[in-house]
Amino acid sequence: MSQATAQEVLRGTAPQVDTRRRGRPNVPGIVGTIFTLIMAAVWIFPLYWAVVTSLKRENDVLANPPNWLPIPLTFNAYSAVLTESGLLRWYWNSVLTGVIITFVVVLLCMMCAYAISQLSFPGKNLLFWTLLAGFMIPGQALTVPQFILMNDLNAVNTYAGIILPQLIAPAVIIIYKQFFDAVPGELHDAAVIDGAGEGRILFNIFLPINWGITWALAIVTFIGAWNAFFWPFIITSSESMMTIPVGITQVNDAFGVQYARTMAVAVLAGLPVVVAYLAFQNRVTEGIMATAGLKG
Amino acid sequence: MWRDALLLITPFTLLYLIFFIFPTFRVFQLSFMDVPLIGGGGEYIGFENYRELMSDSRFWSSVRHTFYFVLLTVIPNTAIGLLFALMVVRLNRLKSIVLAAFFIPFMLPVSVVTLIWQWLLDPTFGILQNVFTFFTGQPVAVFGDPNWAMPSVAFVTVWWTVGFNMLLFIAGLQGIGKDYYEAASLDGATGFQIFRFVTWPLLWPVTALVLTLQLIAQLKIFDQVYLLTGGGPFNSTIVTLQYMYNEAFQNFNGGYSSAIGVALFVIILIASLIQIRFLRTGGAR
Description:
- The complex is a heterodimer.
- By secondary structure, chain A is mainly alpha-helical.
- Chain A folds into two domains: 6-80, no CATH class; 82-292, MetI-like (MetI-like fold).
- Chain A has 16 helices and no strands.
- The two termini of chain A are 14 Å apart.
- Chain B is built from twelve helices and two strands, in the order αββααααααααααα.
- Classes of the chains: A mainly alpha, B mainly alpha.
């Protein structure tokens, strides 16, 4: 069965499932559209309510009946959480670890996939099958030995501790391998005849051909690193080393039932990934579908 | 020419060996030991950890809670994902905005999701308590109620992750050729018949993929449950991964915790093998 590509899905240029008849008014269609819009509104309501709550005064948050709009509007909650919690520090930790993880994952996996796809070397099949077999092992089951290893390396509560296990992304290798396999073989042969080294062929020929999937994988890897909860939660116990998803679980204890502030924290923590999604919708979709096993 | 290849694979392979393959062997080794989480030492005790595990009622109840969560999420999340995909693909101008509304929650970190839902369902001030008051006459502290806790976490999980399933289904639906639908409507098939005899069988490979991904993901449940209920009330929502976490990081039993990790690995392996076998025969009709 052929799949629509990610771009087609989002641009709506893929074949439409169109069962409308022309001429008379399509009552079931209109009812369906209205139902769809209601469901979409229901689905997005929690986010609307989080934003509205974060823009209210702390006392107005608890008003009964609730006020559906943030009137009077205030940014007090935002200035409070930015100055009184560790939020900026967690932001910095998340940005730093996320950028390093993204860069290293994409670079190393690209190199490894290129070698598997284009070159021959001893142990190639062993490496490839080990990577595939690795998908069977849930990373969380390895928590104890990974933690002991990090403790032995003195990496608990450090950036290295957060980053290192997150650099293992065999899925990125498998995806790159598929894309490199699709590059015509003559390109590689011609470059070798011209005397180019493998490193140059990768970065000057294969990478430029595959910028699209590279951006998709980079964005998805960054969002994944930004959102990662379990491992950073295990490896960081001091507040100053926490990433955003781990750190913000602390603010409920700090602020108590100050829901305007809690929601301001939630909005600020979620904003970067939502903006990244809205800005790069096609790439995010492509990356997610590729990692799910559907070629994007 | 091996030299170039080795240079290219070495950085990743080293990381993979040190931080994945080595811990994989080590978790099995530790599971045969009585060893503290930190401080080293420890001694081999054979299958003692596994023997204890088999008769450990807290372990089995954590497995039951995990499967209860699987039951509450896998099929609803797949069905609603398919429903949303069917709703989205027929839209034209509104398509991208409706798609974003369903999908954006999936982009959020888990703790943002749980903070928002703790507020929405706050027993005293939560806006959704109006719904509970309407139906049951009083607010319900859902995450502190043994009957409501797990279904509520499952509900939040569906809200959070259904967009992912929807995306896969949209791709699947748009891969079905238009001719199938034209032929079906020329034959006078109704909307439901078209879905039943055209869409559903042709979509089955995607449905099977979604079900498989869902099952594996939900067996690894920890984050949302831990953040929303902490395993309570009265330990009624402690899932297997949380039991492993508690044993390691509260009781510092490195060996026993590793045995739970191995057990989780085996459970996931068996469950996915059974499901793959079942799904392979399920669609081709």
